[in-house]
Amino acid sequence: MAGASASVLNLASHRRRERNVPKWDPDLYLRFERERSLPCRDLIARISEVQPSRIIDLGCGTGTSTVLLRERWPAARVVGFDNSPEMIATARSTHPDSEWIIGDLRSWTADDPFDLVFSNAALHWVPNHAELFPRLLRNVASGGVLAVQMPVNSGSPAHRCVREVAARPTWASRWDSHLARSKVESAEFYYRQLSPQSSEVGIWVTEYVHVLPNAATILEWVKGTTLRPYLDLLPSPEDRETFLGEILLELNAAYPPQEDGRVLFLFRRLFLVAHRP
Ligand SMILES: C[S@@+](CC[C@H](N)C(=O)[O-])C[C@H]1O[C@@H](n2cnc3c(N)ncnc32)[C@H](O)[C@@H]1O
């Protein structure tokens, strides 16, 4: 890695620790790219009646969603935006011909509104949706679209296992109230935020059933997302291993194998498409 890029990453890690922002692992995240890109494809398929010439992909991560947007609208200018230097570094090295911006969604506004403001599996990490969603819509050009997908999976057995283990006396003192947790509101909430500024709001929920080899694979999946804020607070490899081992025991019980030995990982996701008049 070039010296300048390395020092940008070091500075970013330092600032992240100060603000308690969890660190993303691009390789771990990409391990489930096929499963994770499904909802992104489904969201893109529902965006009709718009031919965007300017698109922004908010929380673009490693660029999987950005590339799908480019494939769908090859004539459009597509910008990927994310606050993780690690994710943007991977996106930039894989797709050097695209435009990538490091920035924070907690304060983002565009100089010029975009025809499509898109976000797949990112906004649940950003707090205060009552402020965020109207602001995002204000950055959509007239006749354009805001399209968002977020997981609504906190009631799943996997999340329950993580919460239960994290609340055990051995671990509970290791986290504090600032621990970053994803937060998604109800469909009614988003309708209330979006409808005053929209000509049409579409909302739907899909539950995906991912067929995975075993419960250990579910652990790998949640290590790349839900568990990141916890693992960041466990610097010792031994502690991490013990913590993950306890979660795996719970996951094994919560996801019994099917006759062929595989497990079914159910995953609910909320989709929002708001059209600007
Ligand atoms: C689960 S990844 C999704 C990546 C991509 N959209 C996809 O579909 O593969 C979530 C991304 O949101 C980004 N993110 C979280 N909070 C953010 C914030 N406040 N500002 C910008 N990006 C943020 C993370 O850095 C991460 O790359």
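^ S-adenosylmethionine complex. The radius of gyration is 19 Å. Confidence is low (pLDDT under 50) at residues 1-20.
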